[in-house]
Design brief:
Number of helices: 10
Low-confidence stretches: none
Largest sheet: 8 strands, mixed
Helix content: 10-25%
Bound molecules: manganese (II) ion
Strand content: 25-35%
Length: 412
């Protein structure tokens, strides 16, 4: 390679400060102008082009996999660790990179990183499940009987998982009205702050995945906004759970953070009592100490160019069920894991004030508005509102790709 971008020109300190330095290296899919989508690695505010790095023999990977328009086949293989080691070695040495191997993020379209196979959403935050339970069953036990014995969840709709930045059209649906059911645009649009694991290596049909084996099947994690229409959900959900109230859109971050990057931030997770059955018992420390936040801008704040207002903070380490337990549960009946499966945590909330991962909780089902920086009283989401989910670990040493979505008016 005679001409190119020296690694030193990549602004190593800036990349480290941004939470996308050499110890993170999340994978994604980018489309440079006039070119086909391809697999890439994020480094600071650049995307490193994997096909170009492979062509220049700077990293080893199957050229067919890195030129694909989704990460799936790359994540399914066993050489992700080698790819990561190659990339880190490259960044640590002063090797010039070919010019076509480095894109400014501003110059490329960053898309959905994986073709999502199956999508499952759990309900694993005790603070969230407890507060929602109190809201709907003020006199009963806030947690369903099975809640401490298995990670409760439901199968969602993978075809409507979209990349961060995709506008969210206000969905229509059926809801309870004063004189019977009504159909129309939802009046109770909500977000849900969640983390999702992306399955890399599949598991064979018919064979449950043990808790201890589950991490080997996970390529990485993304932030998830599981948009919800609460009026539609409340009317339809008994007894089989949500259907159209959730299936209109789910936004995910565009860069998949490898589990290896989260190694220093693994924690035991909260104690489980009563003890769970042996098939679900925790193995290893798989709580993830990630600081999460929800930031809102009202339509007026968006128009004025005002900064988002952080309305909730929570820590993923508080999740009662860890992802290996969730995956073991998902496969306990012999259902297998497929590459590209997305398994989301469920809304993550903390125990205190200002820690509600959705508006349903934060506003007591619309009764107690949040007041934003510009004075906007926020109950449910209005047209033009913008929701941003963020997550960092180690005080910003690793930053997950954010998830942003703006609400568009209902189809007329
Ligand atoms: Mn959810």
């Amino acid at each position: 390679v005679t001409e190119g971008t020296p690694v030193s020109a990549l602004d190593r300190e800036g990349a480290t400060r941004s939470g996308f330095g050499r110890d993170h290296l999340p994978l994604g899919v980018v489309r440079p102008p006039g070119a086909a989508p391809r697999c890439a690695v994020r480094y600071g505010d650049r995307a490193l082009d994997l096909p170009a790095l492979v062509r220049a023999r700077l990293v080893q990977a199957d050229p067919a996999l890195v030129t694909a328009p989704a990460l799936n086949e790359l994540l399914a293989g066993r050489d992700l660790d080698q790819l990561r080691a190659d990339l880190q070695g490259l960044l640590d040495r002063e090797v010039p990179l070919p010019a076509d191997a480095v894109h400014d993020l501003a110059d490329v379209v960053v898309g959905l990183p994986v073709a999502v196979a199956d999508y499952v959403d759990f309900y694993s935050s005790e603070a969230h499940a407890t507060r929602v339970g109190r809201l709907f069953r003020p006199d009963g036990d806030p947690l369903p009987e099975a809640w401490r014995h298995l990670p409760i969840g439901y199968h969602g709709r993978s075809g409507t998982v979209v990349a961060s930045g995709t506008p969210i059209r206000r969905p229509a649906g059926q809801r309870r009205g004063a004189d019977g059911p009504e159909h129309g645009p939802t009046r109770q649009l909500d977000y849900e702050l969640e983390l999702g694991v992306v399955v890399g290596r599949p598991s064979p049909p018919g064979r449950p995945v043990a808790v201890a084996e589950a991490p080997e099947h996970v390529a990485g994690i993304v932030l998830v906004n599981d948009w919800s229409a609460r009026d539609v959900q409340a009317w339809e959900y008994r007894p089989l759970g949500p259907l159209l109230g959730k299936s209109f859109a789910t936004s995910i971050g565009c860069w998949v953070t490898p589990l290896a990057a989260l190694e220093p931030f693994r924690v035991p997770g909260p104690p489980q009592s009563p003890a769970v059955l042996p098939t679900l018992a925790r193995e290893g420390r798989w709580g993830l100490d990630l600081q999460l936040e929800v930031a809102l801008r009202s339509a007026r704040m968006v128009r004025a160019g005002a900064p988002p207002d952080v309305v909730a903070r929570a820590d993923a380490a508080e999740l009662y069920w860890t992802f290996p337990q969730q995956l073991a549960h998902l496969t306990a009946n012999g259902a297998h894991l497929r590459t590209g499966d997305l398994c989301a945590s469920g809304t993550i909330s903390g125990r205190g004030d200002g820690a509600a991962g959705c508006l349903l909780e934060a506003t007591q089902a619309g009764r107690q508005p949040l007041v934003l920086a510009d004075g906007t009283e926020q109950t449910w989401l209005a047209d033009g509102d913008e929701v941003t989910l963020r997550a960092t670990a180690g005080g910003g040493a690793v930053r997950l790709a954010e998830v942003v979505g703006v609400v568009e008016p209902a189809r007329s």
